[in-house]
Amino acid sequence: MATTATIKSPSKSTWSGGQAPMKASYGKLMMWFFLLSDAFTFSALLITYGVIRYSYPQYNPEIHGEVFKFSTEYWPIPDYVFDGVPFLHGMHLPLIFVSIMTFILILSSVTMVLAVEAGHRRDRKDVEKWMLWTIVGGLTFLGCQAWEWSHFITGKEEGLKGVADATKFFGANLVQNQYGPQGFADLFFFITGFHGTHVFSGVVLNFIVFYNVVVGTYDKRGHYEMVEKVGLYWHFVDLVWVFVFTFFYLI
Amino acid sequence: MSEIKTQNVHIDSHEEHHDDHAHHETFISKYIFTTDHKMIGKQFLMTGIFWALIGGALSLIFRIQLGFPEADISWMRPMLGEWITPEGRLDPEFYLALVTMHGTIMVFFVLTAGLSGTFSNFLIPLQIGARDMASGFMNMLSYWFFFASSVVMFSSLFIETGPAAGGWVVYPPLSALEQAIPGSGLGMTMWLVAMALFIVSTLLGGINYITTVINLRTEGMSFSRLPLTIWAFFITAVIGLLSFPVLFAAALLLIFDRSFGTAFYLSDIYIGGEALPQQGGSPVLYQHLFWFLGHPEVYIVIMPAFGITSEVISTNARKPIFGYRAMVGSLLGIAFLSFIVWAHHMFVSGMDPFLGSVFMLLTLVIAVPSAVKVFNYLTTLWKGNIVFTPGMLFSIGLVSLFISGGLTGIFLGNSAIDIQLHDTYFVVAHFHLVMGSAAFFGMMAGVYHWFPKMFGRMINAKLGYVHFWLTFAGVYLVFFPMHYIGIAGFPRRYYTWSSFETFSNIFQDLNAFVTIAAIITFAAQFIFLFNFFYSIYRGRRAPQNPWHSNTLEWTTPIEPGHGNWPGAIPTVYRWPYDYSKPGAADDYIPQTVPYSETPESNTDFENELAALEKESGVEEVDETKE
Ligand code: HEM
Ligand SMILES: [Cu+2]
């Protein structure tokens, strides 16, 4: 054709081209699609958890004895595994510590929302403040997780009797653990570790964004969309934790 | 419009953010670390061709073993070294490594990266009317991750213990235990690393394709006006986005089982009478995770080829594609179903037979959208003024191969029949026709059809015809006999069968025949290679729109620069399949022609649209510098 015509599009309907139909920049869309795909990675891991978990029997007082004790025969009850709290040695406080961790992470999502909101107002001081709180929340969560892991690894007084040689095994590693079947500790380390890696990279991203806020990059750019993008990631990581928490600690 | 100089194309810098590269291009920024989608597409194509040659050559080695088990192949020793035994035979372990690497290379490196990578990159911005991908930088990363993955996979061919050897599906426990076979050592580790890099590359590419199609379509390019190529690439990218992460998870767990003593996939294993410590894992779990990717993957391979075929067949039949909506619908249907049929690969894995029958039902349902596609191709061809370009021949070849291979899928989908056929050459025949050959033909169709756009020159058609007929006859001669061998019970992935009386007497001749056909087919590809590289430098100069096609890429200059259109991006007014429209002067009306300019061929509805175009005021902007 000899000529190319440019016209104002007759129909300004959203999906007819020439504009971003979802009112989202390509960067934000990319983040959404990345999160969708990451959600499938986590789903695969949680399904793995389910498959291995339910290949073992539940603890049943009538068969396994009135008093719960750890055994490789059945999956442990989380209340008895995760009952430690720092400085309160020897007390049975089921799920208290992990609830605190979860609460902190959810709080950091709230501060992230506030940072995004401040970004919309282009209020640099507020973005700085809330990003900082979010980073603090993330680091606290990671710190708690480190304690939780080391507690899990060192183990409890009672230990688990070795099958073959009647020695006792304390704590946990990838090959053996005192709480129950090998898969229990393997999955715990793998899935919370994989999630923790996500939190860690989230903190790093948050920090980079925080730095850019401080030096005024986004003021120069004219918008704070980067804050929104890391915000999406951060919320996703929190949401995943809710699932991980449910799987490992509640059921 | 014929003479537009493309050197130093100047692009309005307010249009897009990444145009400022166009001015100071060095060799490195133009050919190596390029962010231009066209160059990245070509990088994928070249790497894909390289891999196709390697993958093909590997298959010839094991074909020789199957066809001529007594042959003395010491002449290969300079190349394969210790893998040829002192008696001049192929090492049995290496045979397994060969089939594994052949499968991996062909499925992932050639037909995923080489096909999607090439054509999604090259065509998406050109056909939707965008200056480039949403993120040129991520696109570049996508190629370089693929490159890194290729380097790792390629190096694994040369290590002492050999590359991975557990089949392209790398099932544990075989792949999880280093003691099992040499290939499960370092070779397997490198396989996993390469695949992890490959997945990153696919995700970077896929996220880019999806967002580009959503956000960067030019004015007027609604989804219902998208060429079917773009629909296919778009849906393929979505499938990849949702299935590759599951393979990623499966591979990570396998890495832990291999290297850190976990028991996700391992349980109750005794080696030399010694029990391994791992307890409680499930190898079938790996199969589920793998095939949750594995089955969608086969559609990731075929769907871009479908898209290319739709475009090429419609253009060269000079007819609108039959049932555009049905074509889109069947792509969506296939995409959806592809996620819920994976366990048909596991009918005999010890899975619950009831679950098997559920998967059998879902599997057979896929035949419906597949058939919709086939019938629509045939009805598009029906009574068309067919122009037999090489691209067209390869597209028709795809339809033929897809029918032949699809029919055997219906046999295999029946869980009871599959007990007999599973892991025999019948399966090999099925997927090489329906996936391997069909997708390869789609890729060839794309190369022949878009060669003028890629390199500004025409590829020689005569050589193209020779290449087509040799390849077409070749793949049928190679893969058709495999059905008979398979039905008779000949298993796949067996190094030797000559010690079985029945097998050696019955199958020697067919196997030898297949091997000879394979060698000829492989040799025929060198005709293509010569033609391809010769035409890049010496081909006839391409006209602007050699196939009289409607889509936007043919409105760009013959050799488009970075940014694709020197002036403004064209606006789109109609769908891409207005071929041989009754009343129209030409037998094609490009997407950029407004309805108001074609009153002679408009329908009533289109006249209404034309009125709307008028209302909003068509400003004729003549920026074409005749
Ligand atoms: C009518 C549609 C189809 C049906 C019902 C079907 C069914 C099956 C079944 C049941 C198997 C497993 C056989 C076994 O291992 O025992 C299989 C294998 C396979 N199919 Fe199909 N199929 C269909 C179409 C396709 C298409 C379109 C492709 C690719 C584009 C494809 C690619 C493959 C591959 C690669 C394998 C073998 C994987 C392996 O074991 O290495 N199939 N098919
Ligand atoms: Cu399948």
UniProtKB/TrEMBL annotation, chain A:
InterPro entries: Cyt_c/ubiquinol_Oxase_su3, Cyt_c_oxidase-like_su3, Cyt_c_oxidase_su3-like_sf, Cyt_c_oxidase_su3_a-hlx. The chain crosses the membrane at residues 29-52, 95-118, 130-149, 187-211, 232-250. Its main location: membrane. It comes from the Bacteria. PROSITE patterns: COX3. Pfam families: COX3. It is found in: Cell membrane. It is a multi-pass membrane protein. Residues 1-251 form the Heme-copper oxidase subunit III family profile domain. Coiled coil: none annotated. Keywords: Cell membrane, Membrane, Transmembrane, Transmembrane helix. Belongs to the cytochrome c oxidase subunit 3 family. This is Cytochrome c oxidase subunit 3. It comes from Mangrovivirga halotolerans.
Automatic annotation (TrEMBL), chain B:
Residues 11-21 have a biased composition (Basic and acidic residues). The chain crosses the membrane at residues 44-66, 94-124, 144-171, 191-216, 228-256, 289-310, 322-342, 354-375, 387-412, 424-451, 463-490, 510-534. This is Cbb3-type cytochrome c oxidase subunit I. Residues 1-21 are annotated as: Disordered. It comes from the Bacteria. SUPFAM superfamilies: Cytochrome c oxidase subunit I-like (SSF81442). It is found in: Membrane. PROSITE patterns: COX1, COX1_CUB. It is a multi-pass membrane protein. Keywords: Electron transport, Heme, Iron, Membrane, Metal-binding, Respiratory chain, Transmembrane, Transmembrane helix, Transport. Residues 27-573 form the Cytochrome oxidase subunit I profile domain. Pfam families: COX1. InterPro entries: Cyt_c_oxase-like_su1_dom (IPR023616), Cyt_c_oxase-like_su1_sf (IPR036927), Cyt_C_Oxase_1 (IPR000883), Cyt_c_Oxase_su1_BS (IPR023615). Belongs to the heme-copper respiratory oxidase family.
